Amino acid sequence: MLRVATPADAPAIDRLMKESAAGLFPQFYDARQVASAVEHVAQVDLTMLEDGTYFVLEAGAELVACGGWSRRDKLYTGSGDADGDTRLLDPAREPARVRAMFVRPDWTRRGLGRRILEECERAAGREGFDRLALAATLAGLPLYLAYGFQPLEEIEVTMPDGVTVAAVSMEKSIADGRLP
């Protein structure tokens, strides 16, 4: 079941994010990069939970996937400065941000990421956004390409501990904000 996450979900989301990064990132990054990503990328953004723009997918009582979009000027965990991160984006000029997409390793390749992206696209479209933007980890790149995101630039993200990880900045036009 897909639902909007609440601040009370934060501990379960944190566990899911860390499990996902620890289980999926080793296919794309070395051990030092994985450890850094688990610590610095797999972090709950409480602002997204408070804004009601973050979703969880449940199987029974367990969270198996999570992800969301933001109307705020933060492309990924740790990006920007704290003041600018909360600035509301202008839907007429700027893309909404897709952020913090994670799937439990034993639940990959079942369409869960696509389901969350569809909901993000619908919700952002309802608020007047005509584009989505994200910074894809290499683990997420196949999903985003399959969903129609276009690569803009290969980037390196430097974590607070100095470790760098390869990523790709991407954008996608919103399909009139009216997916079925």
Describe this structure in words.
32% of the residues lie in helices and 29% in strands. The chain contains six helices and seven strands. It has a seven-stranded mixed sheet. A hairpin with a 5-residue loop joins strand 6 (150-158) and strand 7. The longest helix is centred in the N-terminal third of the chain and has 15 residues, at 10-24. It starts with a strand and ends in a 7-residue tail after the last strand. The relative contact order is 0.17.
Rg from Cα: 15 Å
Structural class: alpha+beta
Strand content: 25-35%
Determine the oligomeric state from the structure: single chain
Unreliable spans:
none
Order of helices and strands: EHHHEEHEHEHEE
Distance between the termini: 17 Å
- Count the beta strands: 7
Average residue-wise pLDDT: 92
Describe the largest sheet.
7 strands, mixed
Q: How are the strands of the biggest sheet laid out side by side? A: 1-2-3-4-5-7-6
Summarize the amount of helix as a percent range.
25-40%
Q: Please give the count of helices.
A: 6
User: Any idea what the shape is?
Assistant: globular
